[in-house]
Structures are given as structure tokens and as C-alpha cells.
Amino acid sequence: xxxxxxxxxxxxxxxxxxxxxxxxxxxxxxxxxxxxxxxxxxxxxxxxxxxxxxxxxxxxxxxxxxxxxxxxxxxxxxxxxxxxxxxxxxxxxxxxxxxxxxxxxxxxxxxxxxxxxxxxxxxxxxxxxxxxxxxxxxxxxxxxxxxxxxxxxxxxxxxxxxxxxxxxxxxxxxxxxxxxxxxxxxxxxxxxxxxxxxxxxxxxxxxxxxxxxxxxxxxxxxxxxxxxxxxxxxxxxxxxxxxxxxxxxxxxxxxxxxxxxxxxxxxxxxxxxxxxxxxxxxxxxxxxxxxxxxx
Amino acid sequence: xxxxxxxxxxxxxxxxxxxxxxxxxxxxxxxxxxxxxxxxxxxxxxxxxxxxxxxxxxxxxxxxxxxxxxxxxxxxxxxxxxxxxxxxxxxxxxxxxxxxxxxxxxxxxxxxxxxxxxxxxxxxxxxxxxxxxxxxxxxxxxxxxxxxxxxxxxxxxxxxxxxxxxxxxxxxxxxxxxxxxxxxxxxxxxxxxxxxxxxxxxxxxxxxxxxxxxxxxxxxxxxxxxxxxxxxxxxxxxxxxxxxxxxxxxxxxxxxxxxxxxxxxxxxxxxxxxxxxxxx
Lengths: 295, 280
Prior knowledge:
The structure holds 2 protein chains of 2 kinds. By secondary structure, chain A is mainly alpha-helical. In chain A, 72% of the residues lie in helices and 3% in strands. Chain A is built from 13 helices and 2 strands; from the N terminus they run H-E-E-H-H-H-H-H-H-H-H-H-H-H-H. Chain A has a two-stranded antiparallel sheet with strand order 1-2. In chain A, helix 5 crosses helix 7, helix 9 (197-225) packs antiparallel against helix 13 and helix 12 (248-258) runs antiparallel to helix 13 (262-286). The longest helix of chain A has 35 residues, at 7-41. Chain B is mainly alpha-helical. Chain B has 2 domains: 6-61; 71-236, MetI-like fold, CATH 1.10.3720. Chain B contains 15 helices and no strands. The interface between A and B is large, with 93 and 96 residues.
């Protein structure tokens, strides 16, 4: 540490600091300071106009005693359960289909990826019309009369369907890249042994793709925990299913920016982020049981 | 066909099933877009008719007229373009500089500062949003483009991503330039930066698609409809007239169209930019 730097080394160091300065200053102002503030604010009452009074754990006590909050937490968990496993399995299926010798591979990929470049707000609007209970095309195609979006039982399922539909192409592209990295020789050696396709899938494909599956799973889980725009667009205050589809992030938005209770809102976001970190940690701990990094 | 052995037959069946599944999947993926397009040209009565008609009886523009009455689309496009432009410029310029420095230069505190970058990446953006809004309000930037751009002035993800790119460029290239008399910054922008085109394009697309699709921040920071982005503007139609399907579909189509056109032109770059960056 006490070693004298040469002129050239000192110059390099100055350039280094100068070049990271905009980013680091930006991160301090835009992220680190706000992060500390949000945690502090979660222990405060918002008096209006950005003034706060410290009230200790009161926001958390209110929050944990609030049925709407627990409902939103459960809705968020339910949304993850509905979207993550089905989404990832379907994406793996699509990726495996695209990994065979098919024509128009690029065309299929373009089609499956299309929702990713569309604003979620616009996608939700289109699906809302498709799901409409009275004259929506989905009910007409299925011959059903389900009030998809306004029935408390189906509302979150409808949002989950839109979410899976939107993200399947993205996950499939990542998984396809993983599949293409599996050495062909592994399959060749295996087929000489006389193993069937199904056994090949479980003994080669699945273990080899598991690291990619793991990162897709983590990403999908994180974004499902944060779901906001689809739910915002497909529910409004007049929707009778509102309470049964409201996610934590939607509750956060409503508490902080519609009701203006920023202390309580901060407590919700701190809770949500803690939950995300907890789930991620569990995933990282659980991966030992099923993710293979070398075969 | 009769003398095909069973292996060939099962191969043909597998081939058929593969195409069948892919085509069914594609239809499910495309249908909402087709339905949006067709419904946007229908009359309101036609759009809710039972049984539904597939094609509109005539291509009417009532839906488009109605949505243009309700939303200032020219402003929405313009605001979205400015938001995307400034976010992309900031992300590319600042992240390239920092990414290069983190990858190629030696300076004290480097590891600690890079840890900050990684920490920001792993936290959901909502945890910063209330204080960010309060800063924007204090600076008097509510209902401005600057306010919209604000949280995206720097991109931790961009730094991380471009650092990887610079790590992949051999040190010798920079050293040669350095020996030719370039200083570190000249080496960066004359020699190294031009080599990162593919990654910069990927970061540009990633940043643009994210800024264009983001809903919560534009809703919070701007409350004047003339300062909304396409996403936030479209969201105001929610609950306004939920049975006017042609209007809703016309609005959605207008909001999606520019990005879809760009996507169809630059397919490979988009897929790489969004999925290849591994972010989002």
C-alpha cells in the first residue's frame, strides 16, 4: 500500500477514477442514498410535502395487522406459483422444438419473441379485450361464459396466462442457447448404449441444461414477485376481483402514490424486497440438489 | 410409403408433431396481434357481436379517431422518443467509460466501487422510487422530460455488461495504442470503444425497450397527459370506456407499432439485445 506509484501508474489511476466518476456519483445519488432513505422512511409517518416523523415500527405493525396486505402477499405468491413452473416448462418445450432440425427456425423464434418488444401496458389492453366476459373472443372460442377478469377466482389466472404468453419467447431463447451448448458427442455415446429419447432427456438434456434453467428460474421468479403493469392494466377500482389480483407492487403504488402514505408504502417495498431476497437465497441453497455444473 | 421401416416412420411422426406443436404455438402467439389489428377497424357494435366476426365488414377508422381524441398521441410519441434517446445516450456513454475503466485500468478502490454496481443490479428498482420521486419534485422536474429520464441517468447493468465486453478484448490492443502516445482516455475512445459495436447495439436495444415499456415511473413522475409516455398514456384508457374495443385496440396498436416495425427490421439484434444481455 505504501509503495510509491510511478507517474504512469498515477495517471492511470486518475483516468480510472475520472471514468467511473459519472457512474459512481449517479449510483450514490440515484440508488444508494434512496435505498437508505427508503429504509428510514419505512419507520416514519409521511406528514406531507416530503416531511417525515419517526414512528418506529408502527408502519410494520400496521402492515402485518392488515388483511389487504396479507392478501396482496398471497396474491403475489400465487402469481409466482401460477407463472414460474408452467412458464419455464413451456419455454423448455419450445426451446427443444426449436433445437431440432426444423425449417423457418428464425421465423418461429421471431414470432415467439414478439411480445418482448411490446409495452406490457399495450399487451394487457389487448388481452383484456380477448378475455372480456360478455363478448370476448376467448369465451366464444371455448364456448364458455367465464368472467375472466372480474371473477375473483379467475382474475389472477388470466393475468398469469398473459404473463406466461409474454415471457415464453425470452425464456425459450435463453434455454435454446443452453441446449445448443450441449456437446453432440454426449448424445451419440448415449444412443450407442441404446438409451431411448425419454431416458436421454432425463440423463443428458436435463442435467446439462440445469444451470441455464436455474438462471431462467431466478429471473422469472424475481420478475413475477415484482409484477405490476399487467395487474394495473387489467384491474381497476371498479373491478370486483381487484382484492384478489392486487400484487404487492400494486399495493405499494397505491399506498405511496395514490393514498400518499409514503412511510407505509416504504414498509411494503422493504417487505417485498426482503421476500425476493429470501426466495432467491432459498433457490441458491436448493440448487445444489438439482443443478449440475459438471457431468 | 409401405416399405418405410418403423424407424423412418417414427422419425416422420416426430417431425410432424414438432411442426404441429410449433405452428399451434405460433398461432397462439400471433393471434392477439391479429385480433388487435382486425378489431381496431371494426365498429363498436361489430366488435362485441356474438358470434364474433373475424374480419371487419369494412375497414373503419372510428376507433383510431376516438383514441386520437382521447390521447395526444403525437406528444406521447415525442415524449417516448426523447425518453428513449436520453436514456440510451446516458447508458452508452457513462457505461462505456466505466466499463472500460473497470475492465482495463488499475486504480485503488476498484473492487469496492464495482461491488456497488453489483449491489444496485441485484435490487429491484422499486426500492429507490419514493426518494427518487422526492428528488425530482424538489428539483422542480415533475412533468418534464428530465424527470422522466432521471432514474436512468446511469445504468449499473450497462456497466456490468460492457465491462464483460472490454474484458474480452486483448490487452495488447490497448497497449499498442498507449505506446503510440495515446493517453488512457484516447486509447478508450479511439481504439477500444469502436470495437464494442455489437455490445453497444445490444445495450441500446435493451435500454430502449425497457424505457419504452416501463409504466410505474412515468405514471409517478408526470401527471400531465401531455408529458406522458406511450405506456402511461395508454394506461389512462383503463376503465375510461372499457367496452369501446375498437378504440382500445387502435390505441394499443399505435403504441406497439413503432417498436414492432423496428423489431422486424433488426430481429437478430433485438433478440440478442434483450435475451443476449441476460438482463431484464
